[in-house]
From TrEMBL:
This is Large ribosomal subunit protein bL9. Keywords: Coiled coil, Ribonucleoprotein, Ribosomal protein, RNA-binding, rRNA-binding. Residues 179-191 have a biased composition (Acidic residues). Belongs to the bacterial ribosomal protein bL9 family. PANTHER family: 50S RIBOSOMAL PROTEIN L9 (PTHR21368). It comes from Pseudorhizobium banfieldiae. GO terms for cellular component: ribonucleoprotein complex; ribosome. The gene is rplI. Residues 153-191 are annotated as: Disordered. GO terms for biological process: translation.
Length: 191
C-alpha cells in the first residue's frame, strides 16, 4: 500500500514522502496512529493544504523532545536489585522499570520510547537509548547495584563482581595450598 507520511519515521522516510509499505503495517500502525494517509488524490490535496500546520506541529514536538533530552543529558539513574555474588540479577531491569525511575525524577517518557532490545540482567553501568522524537534520541546511564552504597562505588569506577570487590580479597593471592595441606595424613590412608 502506498501512504503519505505525516511525520518523519525512522527507516521509512521524511514527512510528505509517498512510500510503499506492507498493508498490515499501514492498517495496524501508520493509519490508526495518524502517522500516514493513504496515497490517493484527495489525501495528497489534503496533505498539501495542511502541510504548514503539520510541519509546525512536528517542529513543536521536536523542540519539546529536545528540552527533555537536554534535561536528561548526563543523568544516571540508580536501580537497586537483588543479585548473586557473580553479579547476575535474580530478576531483570526492563523498559517498564526504567520508565518508573524516570517518572520518579519527573520525566514523562513512554514505554515505546525506551530502546532496550534485551532486559538488563547484571549489575553494573548500562547505557540505554531513549527515542524521544524521530529526530531526537539520547543515551542515559542505568546504574544497577545491590545497594545504594554499591551504586556509588560503581559510579566511581569500582568493579563489584570480582572476589576482591565482594570479599575484600585479592584473587591473585588465593592459592589452593592456602586451603589444604597436601602433605597432611588423611584418615583411612595406609602406607
Amino acid at each position: 500500500m502506498d501512504v503519505i507520511l505525516l511525520e518523519r519515521i525512522a527507516r521509512l522516510g521524511q514527512m510528505g514522502e509517498t512510500v510503499k509499505v506492507r498493508d498490515g503495517y499501514a492498517r495496524n500502525y501508520l493509519l490508526p496512529q495518524g502517522k500516514a494517509l493513504r496515497a490517493n488524490d484527495a489525501n495528497k490535496k489534503r496533505f498539501e493544504a495542511e502541510r504548514a500546520t503539520l510541519e509546525a506541529r512536528n517542529l513543536e514536538r521536536r523542540s519539546e523532545a529536545q528540552k527533555v533530552a537536554d534535561a536528561l543529558e548526563g543523568k544516571t539513574f540508580v536501580m537497586v536489585r537483588s543479585a548473586g555474588e557473580t553479579g547476575q540479577l535474580y530478576g531483570s531491569v526492563a523498559a517498564r522499570d526504567i520508565i518508573e525511575a524516570l517518572a520518579a525524577e519527573g520525566f514523562n517518557i513512554g514505554r515505546n520510547q525506551v530502546d532496550l532490545s534485551l532486559p538488563i540482567k547484571t549489575i553494573g553501568l548500562h547505557k540505554v537509548t531513549l527515542l524521544l522524537h524521530a529526530e531526537v534520541e539520547i543515551e542515559i546511564e542505568i546504574n544497577v547495584a545491590r545497594t545504594v552504597e554499591e551504586a556509588e562505588r560503581q559510579a566511581k569506577g569500582e568493579t563489584l563482581t570480582s572476589a576482591d570487590a565482594i570479599y575484600g580479597v585479592d584473587e591473585d593471592a588465593l592459592r589452593p595450598e592456602d586451603f589444604f595441606d597436601p602433605d597432611a595424613d588423611r584418615e583411612g590412608d595406609e602406607e
